[in-house]
Amino acid sequence: MLNVLKHPLLTHKLAILRRKETGTKDFRETLEEIAGLMAYEITRDLPVKNITIETPLGKCKTQELAIDVVLVPVLRAGLGMVDGISNLIPTARVGHIGMYRDHVTLVPMTYYSKFPDNLPDAIVMVLDPMLATGGSSTAAIQILKDHGAKSIKLVCVVGAPEGVNRIMKDHPDVQIYLAGLDDKLNDNGYIVPGLGDAGDRIFGTK
Fold first, then answer.
1. In order of start, what are the domains of the chain with their CATH numbers?
2. For a designed S-S bond to 163, which of 96, 106, 134, 157 qualifies (C-beta 3.0 to 4.6 A apart)?
3. Residue 22 designated active-site
4. What pLDDT digit, counting tens, does each position of 78-87 carry?
């Protein structure tokens, strides 16, 4: 269920995110662009239904999406991925999960959650730039399942093998999408080589 997306534009833009000299504005804009590029692959298997429409010249048999899409960013870094995907799926509804990782125990702590009422019937995309230990992501996925979500995709920019293995163990039914699979976690639970703290770099808080 792991999908590591390969595309020259993704590789190029991911290099910009990784570069320590990249400032807040460029980091934020590039993350949004990466999310948009990833959206094409993430949505490849969305179901469609047959419809007939009127063009200026006549009838046309075509297709449209047959299912709702819900985007659920994990606060706060996941917010940086919402616009890139919702620009392509403007009908997508957006829920939120607020989590932080205890820097000593690495245990995810939930402080906020709010979702639209169509989770059971929608494709739900959990958005978080980093898949490190997998603790926050697996907790977020479980919260969504507890609220009725049945079809969930985890969309991250970079991930570590430890996090991927955690999700595959805890939630084998969830598809994982990455733009880059990195080497490992360091002793502090951060992805190496990674791209630093995504939330701080998006919002300029460090």
1. 2-46+66-203 (3.40.50.2020)
2. 134
3. no
4. 999 999 999 9
Q: Give percent of the chain with pLDDT exceeding 70.
A: 99
pLDDT tens digit string along 88-104? 999 999 999 998 767 77
Structure tokens at 178: 């990455």
Catalytic residue among 76, 101, 110, 170: 101
Q: Which of 11, 62, 105, 205 is catalytic?
A: 105
Question: Collapsing DSSP states into helix, strand and coil, what is residue 198?
Answer: helix
pLDDT of res. 69: 97
Go through 116-151 and write b for each residue having 16 or more CB atoms within 10 A of its CB, e for each that does not. bebbeebbbbbbbbbbbbbbbbbbbbebbbebebeb
Contacts of 108 (CB under 8 A, 6+ apart): 99, 100, 101, 102, 135, 136, 139, 140
Number of neighbouring beta carbons within 10 Å of residue 41: 16
